[in-house]
Amino acid sequence: MDFSYTPKEEAFRKEVRDWLDVHMKELPNWWRNPEVMGPEIDSDEYHQFSLWWHKKLYAAGFVGIAWPKEYGGRGATLLEQVVYNEEMAKARAPGPANGLGIGWAGPTIMAYGSEEQKKRFLPKILSAEEHWCQGFSEPEAGSDLANVQTRAVDAGDHYVVNGQKVWTTGGHYSDWAILLVRTDPNAPKHRGLTYLLLDMHSPGVTVRPLRQITGHAEFNEVFLDSVKILKSLQIGETNRGWHIAVGTLAFERSALATTVQRENTFQDLIKVARQVKRHGRPVIEDPLVRQRLAQFHIDIQVLKYTGLRSLTGQLRGDRPGPETLVVNLFGTELNLRMQEFAMEIQGPYSRLMRGSDYAIDNGSWQFSFLSARGTAIASGTLEIKRNVIAERGLGLPRSNR
Amino acid sequence: MDFGLSEQQVMLKTSARDFLDKECPKRLVRQMIDDERGYSPELWKKMAELGWQALVIPEEFGGVGSSFLDLAVLLEEMGRALVPGPFVSTIVHCARPIAGFGTDEQKRRLLPAIAGGDLIMTMALAEAEGGLEASDIATAAGNSGGGFVINGRKMFVPDAHVADYFLCVTRTSGGSADSEGISVFLIDAKAPGISIRKLRTISGEKLCEVVFSDAMVPTSALLGEVDGGWPIVSRILEEAQVAESAWMTGGARWVLETSVQYACTRVQFGVPIGSFQAIQHKCADMAVEVEGATSAMYYAAWAVAENDTQMPMAASVAKAWCSDTFKHAAINGIQIHGGIGYTWDHDMHLYLKRAKASEVAFGDADYHRDRVARLLNI
């Protein structure tokens, strides 16, 4: 066992840190200080802000660092990615824009796309000149993603697509979507799907915003009414889209960056527990509050070291074991528990929101508590995550869900 | 960056499992519950032949000189097999501190005998309230004619009835709240003035009450300095917590694997019960905890082996987590097994009882959460 990094990785760490030292200062005050009112997260101003920050990261070569050099990335090693994600999270820096393009669409095109598709799409994904969104989920295809009903009919050199997609984050300002459609309605549900790239500006595409639990409208419904999609925009073989979609979902993010985010939340939580008083004393002096806080620290250590075991497996080239699968579920639930606890200790102040007098941290906890509920559902509900651990991790027989 | 076992550690683990599958079947574990001694001298001897007792004892004193991390690998397998007997008390609670703090004479006298499997030791620490702080130590050692005279009552001493020597924690000076004034003695169990009474336990482990009435010990029995024993005890406690965590991790993993196996084969309503989400989700939650236990425990074992400054925190994190994990796993394991899990014949109850015993040994989860909070300055 050895928990150190090589000089090469440490040098890269310093490069990231030095860059952040300079550029974090350029961020607007509201990014750092919740008491300063910033733009709403679904506003155009916020979108422009993330593009502005993206350009800086891009210019420094800090976007898509895992991407191969030939596609504009750095070809960073696994450990360099770990270091990068860790440092970004430690500095509480905003991430790049176009996350879905960089994390999902790009790697999918790299793995399964044609040379022409790679040349056409990859550079503009990385620069965020073209923004991407996801068109997998449908009203009848949530956890049962393979139940996609959106129909694509073969019309020679193109498909004609009809149907509806939902939960399309950023759909209202996206240029392209990765799209899962049914091309063979007679085949078993996993074997009749095809993976397409959709130009969101095509005729017949209607995007309607959906308002979320937080009051913001980040995601959308997308209606497809006889939309023409050229076959040159198909990824992989016809009716083989399911396997590609599953591949897309497997491009998972680093568990160690999640650990740092949890650590940040924990530090903020301690501040709240020192600030809020009950019976004239800070709630942090309550023995039950101390127990809960200590358990969060324990949980964070467990998350961190399980993440390191998973990373070690990846570095050694082992097949991912249960330790890799549990990290995602546990890290998600840990955040949910911390968010709930942050609300709990605020007592009556937990009812106040952003913009209200006396709201603690200007209501940022109320926002993060509510938005965290989405993480219990998006990209695999907590229940589906448990099914996956049971079936893929432990080898239990498949459930009749 | 590498947080995994080395090839040699994997080999140690595999060979330990093979050996214990053969030499320590549940039949033996059950026999030992009712056995007077509570351990099998034959198994003890075979373990010594494999060099297990010698593993972490320095080479110059007849040992193998391996690290605490290697010991953790072994303890995990012993916990999985529920090996009965005084291995942890002899090696972790006594041999390690003797190697770390003993005089050359003490090391030469005791360590080779331990390494060879010829000497059993145990620590007499807890008293009536079972606390783990210096303020909980009331057993008194007073100066008397070139030696010390010991008076007091020690509780929950494992395997005292078969021990050749005690590592006994006493108060030699200071008020009851002082961490100074604690002294540690290595006491011949045959010395006059020592009486031992076995207590009945739910798990079948042998716990004893040990009463010292004017027990005389020579100055050469002192481990470390007079009044300077607390740092020794602190170190023993931290290592004991990690060792207990390793034991619990092994036990919890056995429970998880056994429950998953059962859920794959037990058919109800025409299908294996493992295809029911209610069972799947229980197993998934067990997996989260067991993987977490493995991570927390090995990190703590590494911290002990490396003398890392994170050791106290890592030990408490591991002990808190593993205490909860083993208990939850055993409770869920019985539930997944249904009626058969409630029977004496099935082995699951042995693990629940061990989980309850290990949970409170060297501080339960609440105690360690409080310690984590203190270490975080909150």
Describe this structure in words.
The complex is a heterodimer of chains A (401) and B (378). Chain A folds into 3 domains: 7-97, Acyl-CoA dehydrogenase/oxidase, N-terminal domain (Butyryl-Coa Dehydrogenase, subunit A, domain 1, Orthogonal Bundle); 131-240, Butyryl-CoA Dehydrogenase, subunit A, domain 2, CATH 2.40.110; 255-393, Butyryl-CoA Dehydrogenase, subunit A, domain 3, CATH 1.20.140.10. Helix content of chain A is 46%, strand content 13%. Chain A has 12 helices and 10 strands. Chain A has helices spanning 7-23, 29-32, 44-59, 78-90, 99-112, 115-126, 241-249, 255-275, 287-316, 322-345, 364-375, 382-393, and strands spanning 132-135, 151-154, 158-165, 176-182, 193-199, 205-210, 219-230, 234-235, 277-278, 281-282. In chain A, the strands form 3 sheets. In chain A, strands 1-4-5-8 form a 4-stranded mixed sheet. Chain B has 3 domains: 7-119, Acyl-CoA dehydrogenase/oxidase, N-terminal domain (Butyryl-Coa Dehydrogenase, subunit A, domain 1), CATH 1.10.540; 123-228, Butyryl-CoA Dehydrogenase, subunit A, domain 2; 231-375, Up-down Bundle (Butyryl-CoA Dehydrogenase, subunit A, domain 3). Chain B is 51% helix and 16% strand. Chain B has a 4-stranded mixed sheet with strand order 1-4-5-8, covered by helices on one side.
What is the strand and helix layout of this fold?
The complex is a heterodimer of chains A (401) and B (378).
Chain A: H1 7-23, H2 29-32, H3 44-59, H4 78-90, H5 99-112, H6 115-126, E1 132-135, E2 151-154, E3 158-165, E4 176-182, E5 193-199, E6 205-210, E7 219-230, E8 234-235, H7 241-249, H8 255-275, E9 277-278, E10 281-282, H9 287-316, H10 322-345, H11 364-375, H12 382-393
Parallel strand pairs in A: 1-4
Antiparallel strand pairs in A: 2-3, 3-7, 4-5, 5-8, 6-7, 9-10
Helix pairs in contact in A: 1-4, 4-8, 5-6, 5-7, 8-9, 8-10, 9-10, 10-11, 10-12
Chain B: H1 7-23, H2 26-34, H3 41-49, H4 68-81, H5 87-101, H6 104-115, E1 121-124, E2 140-144, E3 147-158, E4 165-171, E5 182-188, E6 194-199, E7 207-218, E8 222-223, H7 230-265, E9 267-268, E10 271-272, H8 277-305, H9 311-337, H10 348-360, H11 365-375
Parallel strand pairs in B: 1-4
Antiparallel strand pairs in B: 2-3, 3-7, 4-5, 5-8, 6-7, 9-10
